């Protein structure tokens, strides 16, 4: 099939709003249900927080990546409803539920603060810092610059671990894993418990995702492939389980999101950044092999040069009754899609 591109202004994403890049949107691009209010600088990565008492009041947390950036909260209509304190180049963000601080369970958003070489921990939904100004990461390393982050909640004891990536690193042990802890006085801390992960050396490792139910970590070794590892540091298994998607991307393989149809089945969606599409793989693997990942579909989206994405299967009400997929786009915005529109394209590709 011949792919046609058009250079247009799309939903306010003009060439000027995208910096020097002209917005190239495919004619068959999936239109978003919502485009958020623009941020001041540069959107990079979103995460979805599900409101435990009313899912229709869930929020999207997104990073504004600049020296005077921060975390922003959006409602399901794309309106900015909150902001963290100023952060020095926050890169990626992830969310976990029930971190125990002073005997109380607290939902948290954890982001990398690249220019300070720290991770930052904020309570949700109020985006208040609970980390004594941040926790240093990659201490003792020549290259630090934290970028990617994903949170793993161990089912057996509900302990929460942060998997952190960086701008550059060694070919082995590129990722460091930290256990989030109660540091006393209502504050959170973190302790490094593991160093693992292969790296090709081609570009960087930024996009990381954790599958709590399957106990796995997926991350993008950009311009090389998608790697898979065991998530639980107590398993003491640092062997690479899978490497896939090596011939599927135009250039950078970036943001990763995992849609869960059941406890074990669903989809892995990975941004084909320069093609403005998302590549879809089976979460459970294929042919009875959980580490075999054939390409199921390529979904063209309205996003431009997408770095990060997240997805939920939770009924958020309104147009998101079967879930919401959110992705960053140039133009300082995030795009929301109702899951049904993506599922239809996946189903069509399977026929």
UniProtKB/TrEMBL annotation:
GO molecular function, one term: inositol hexakisphosphate 3-phosphatase activity
Signal peptide from the UniProt entry: 1-23
Highest taxon of source: Bacteria
A family per Pfam: Phytase
Keyword vocabulary terms for this entry: Signal
Domain BPP: start-end pairs: 15-346
InterPro entries to which the protein is assigned, alphabetical: 6-blade_b-propeller_TolB-like, B-propeller_Phytase
Protein name (database record): BPP domain-containing protein
Source organism (scientific name): Flavobacterium flevense
């Amino acid at each position: 099939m011949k792919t046609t591109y058009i250079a247009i202004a799309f939903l306010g994403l003009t060439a000027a709003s995208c910096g020097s890049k002209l917005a190239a949107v495919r004619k068959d691009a999936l239109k978003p249900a919502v485009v958020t209010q623009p941020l001041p600088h540069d959107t990079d990565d979103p995460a979805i927080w599900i409101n435990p008492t009313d899912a229709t009041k869930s929020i999207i947390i997104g990073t504004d990546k600049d020296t005077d950036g921060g975390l922003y909260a959006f409602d399901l209509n794309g309106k900015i409803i909150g902001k963290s304190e100023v952060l020095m180049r926050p890169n990626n963000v992830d969310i976990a539920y029930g971190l125990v601080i002073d005997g109380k369970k607290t939902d948290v958003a954890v982001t990398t603060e690249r220019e300070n070489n720290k991770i930052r921990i904020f309570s949700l939904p109020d985006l208040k810092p609970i980390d004594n100004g941040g926790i240093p990461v990659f201490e003792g390393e020549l290259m630090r610059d934290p970028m990617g982050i994903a949170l793993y909640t161990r089912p057996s004891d509900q302990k929460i671990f942060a998997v952190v990536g960086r701008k550059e690193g060694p070919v082995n042990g590129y990722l460091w894993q930290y256990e989030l802890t109660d540091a006393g006085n209502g504050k959170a801390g973190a302790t490094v418990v593991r160093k693992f992960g292969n790296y090709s050396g081609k570009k960087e490792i930024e996009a990381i995702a954790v599958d709590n139910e399957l106990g796995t970590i997926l991350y993008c070794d950009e311009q090389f492939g998608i790697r898979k590892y065991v998530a639980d540091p107590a398993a003491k298994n640092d062997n690479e389980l899978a490497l896939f998607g090596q011939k599927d991307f135009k250039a950078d393989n970036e943001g990763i999101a995992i849609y869960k149809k059941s406890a074990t089945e669903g989809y892995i969606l990975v941004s084909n950044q320069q093609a403005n599409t998302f590549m879809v793989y089976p979460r459970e693997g294929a042919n009875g092999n959980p580490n075999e990942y054939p390409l199921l579909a390529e979904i063209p989206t309205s996003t431009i040069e997408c770095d990060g994405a997240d997805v939920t299967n939770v009924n958020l009400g309104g147009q998101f009754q079967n879930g919401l997929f959110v992705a960053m786009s140039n133009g300082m915005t995030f795009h929301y899609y109702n899951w049904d529109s993506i599922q239809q394209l996946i189903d069509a590709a399977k026929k």
